Amino acid sequence: MPAVAETLQHRIAQLEPHFTVTRPEGEGPSPVLIMLHGCGGPRPFLDDMAQVAVRAGAAVINVDSFAHRHISRIAAFATVCTGARLQGNERAGDLYAALAWARAQPWADAHRIAAIGWSHGGWTIMDALALHSGAEMARATGISDLPDEPLEGLEAALLVYPYTGVGTLCGRRDWRFAPRQTVAIIAQRDYIVGSSRAALERQRSHGAPMQILLFENATHAFEDEFAEDPRVRYNPQATAREHATLREMIEAL
């Protein structure tokens, strides 16, 4: 767990050069989608997802959590994907920082923000929802001056094959903050993170407004045509359904 060593503005300054921002035409303000990649780092299919969101009318902030930390893809598999480094509760600080940055942009509607996270990114969103304000949040994220509610404006979350296992808060603690709409996608043949249904059902049973979608015959990272992992199979039908789910979420903001 990181020591408290930086301010929110310092985290923003570290991340901002590695934001990829894509916006619809016009001055806005537009709803905003914050994208959090999986443990292997940014993948080409995220560009496709960004275009889906932009065509639906949202501005997109694609957050690269690895660049300023100098984490290569090989290092990510060895350390982040194994849980040895940058667990979800620490990376939650990146989401808090991206939200603060988004709220300050003149083209952004600060009251209509959504977040989407894949695998480790889903873990990050859920830990961000569960961390207690104050000392715990500061210890976990390494950010010393977070506001009492750093998720202000977060109206929706899309959790795609999220990791909910050892080290996460999802299965053992209620969310502190619940977006108005949350959708979770479970891949039926996910042999990487396993089944997250029990942890997600627990949050739903404790009052989190959540829709849980089972994508039959889909593996982990079913959108990734270039995956190197033999447990992953590209599934165009599941990918199209995910695109439709994202469009519906943005339209409901």
Structural class: alpha/beta
Tell me, what is the CATH class?
A: Alpha Beta
> How many domains, in number, for the residues?
1
- Mean residue pLDDT: 96
Q: Quote the CATH topology.
A: Rossmann fold
Strand order of the largest sheet: 1-3-2-4-5-6-7
The ordered H/E elements are: HEEHEHHEHHEEHEH
> Unreliable runs, pLDDT <50, ≥5 residues?
none
Number of strands: 7
Counting DSSP H or I runs of 4 or more residues, the number of helices is 8
Say which CATH homologous superfamily is assigned. Alpha/Beta hydrolase fold, catalytic domain
Helix content: 25-40%
Specify the overall morphology: globular
Instruction: Give the termini distance in whole angstroms.
Output: 34 Å
Which range does the strand content fall in?
15-25%
Tell me about the largest β-sheet. 7 strands, mixed
Please state the CA-atom Rg, rounded to the nearest Å: 17 Å
- Per CATH, the architecture is 3-Layer(aba) Sandwich
Q: What attributes characterize this protein structure?
A:
253 residues; alpha/beta; Rossmann fold; seven-stranded mixed beta sheet
